[in-house]
């Protein structure tokens, strides 16, 4: 007569021993597959056992016997590895790796937003911040000021003293700009070549002119030698100024265009000075769109 097959009964000297065997085999299988087991989710009961038994810090050895009803007895040598210590070391390694990656990402983000030569924001970062500040200024109904700064006769400076000195001169001027516009919201950026810009939230034309005058004064005090300059014995700049009361959907480029026109005016009228073109006002068309226009112009 055939007997009904019985499900194997597991008989071990200790339940914890069995848990360890299962855990170790499982862990080994996962390791072979190249997976990193997560102790907290895989073996919470075992972790709890190790914690409560205060044995996690030491190595234990012993033998566990697993008896099956079929008669088979499995003798397993147990090496109780303090997995918590192993996992802690793994966690520490992962943490170090995460910190290294975070620092690397921060470095990459900094490189993507800054000009390596001058140590100020680059054009891309300027465009990004201009968009943000434009919207913020529109919300808060505050003016947004902009200076466009160009070193006078810089080609002659390079030709006379070499490009390396030219680079040093650019860095010095960038340093002066950062010192002149030191509010937390001010952004000094390289716009291209030897042209730099300063974006100044909450700044009217009057305020922007004040910063421009401060730059001229600081450069005169700094007196970077430029004996070949037809303008002065030291390095000077020309500055175009603009300030607008932003409206959300109006063209942001107008702020830059106005400062650019002011810069050309400053160059045309003798350099080493600040200029701005007549203020624009915003015209609202019947379809709701808004455009900037000079005084007297109709929508
Ligand atoms: N050393 C150095 N020179 C640069 C750099 N970027 C642009 N330049 C130089 O800046 C000079 C700009 O010259 P121009 O635009 O002709 O104007 P300028 O000589 O400054 O004359 P004005 O602007 O009319 O006063 C060129 O000679 C460029 O080669 C840079 O990163 N380093």
UniProtKB/TrEMBL annotation:
CDD domains: GGDEF (cd01949)
UniProt KW rRNA processing keyword: no
Segments crossing the lipid bilayer: 59-81
UniProt-listed SUPFAM superfamilies: Nucleotide cyclase
UniProt KW keywords: Membrane, Transmembrane, Transmembrane helix
Domain GGDEF as annotated: residue spans: 142-279
Residue ranges the record marks as coiled coil: none
E.C. number: 2.7.7.65
InterPro entries for the chain: Diguanylate_Cyclase (IPR050469), GGDEF_dom (IPR000160), Nucleotide_cyclase (IPR029787), Rev_trsase/Diguanyl_cyclase (IPR043128)
Name of the protein described by the UniProt record: diguanylate cyclase
Taxon lineage: Bacteria, Pseudomonadati, Pseudomonadota, Gammaproteobacteria, Oceanospirillales
């Amino acid at each position: 007569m055939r007997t009904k097959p019985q499900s194997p009964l597991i008989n071990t000297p200790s339940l914890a021993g069995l848990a360890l065997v299962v855990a170790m085999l499982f862990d080994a299988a996962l390791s072979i597959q190249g997976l990193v087991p997560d102790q907290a989710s895989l073996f919470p009961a075992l972790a709890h056992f190790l914690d409560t038994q205060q044995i996690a810090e030491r190595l234990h050895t012993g033998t566990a016997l697993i008896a099956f009803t079929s008669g088979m007895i499995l003798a397993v040598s147990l090496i109780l590895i303090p997995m918590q210590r192993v996992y802690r070391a793994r966690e520490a390694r992962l943490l170090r790796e995460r910190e290294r990656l975070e620092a690397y990402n921060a470095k990459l983000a900094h490189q993507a937003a800054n000009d390596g030569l001058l140590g100020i924001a680059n054009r891309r970062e300027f465009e990004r911040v201009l968009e943000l500040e434009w919207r913020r200024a529109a919300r808060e109904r505050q003016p947004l000021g902009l200076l466009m700064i160009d070193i006078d006769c810089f080609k002659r400076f390079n030709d006379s003293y070499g490009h390396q000195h030219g680079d040093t001169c650019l860095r010095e001027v960038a340093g002066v700009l950062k010192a002149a516009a030191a509010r937390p919201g001010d952004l000094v950026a390289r716009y291209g070549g030897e042209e730099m810009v300063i974006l100044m939230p909450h700044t009217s034309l009057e305020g922007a002119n004040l910063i421009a005058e401060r730059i001229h004064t600081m450069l005169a005090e700094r007196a970077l030698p430029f004996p070949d300059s037809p303008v002065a014995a030291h390095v000077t700049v020309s500055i175009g100024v603009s300030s607008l009361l932003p409206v959300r959907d109006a063209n942001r480029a107008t702020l830059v265009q106005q400062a650019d026109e002011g810069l050309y005016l400053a160059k045309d009228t003798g350099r080493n000075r600040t200029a701005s073109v007549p203020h624009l006002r915003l015209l609202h068309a019947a379809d709701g769109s808004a455009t900037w226009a000079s005084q007297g112009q109709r929508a």
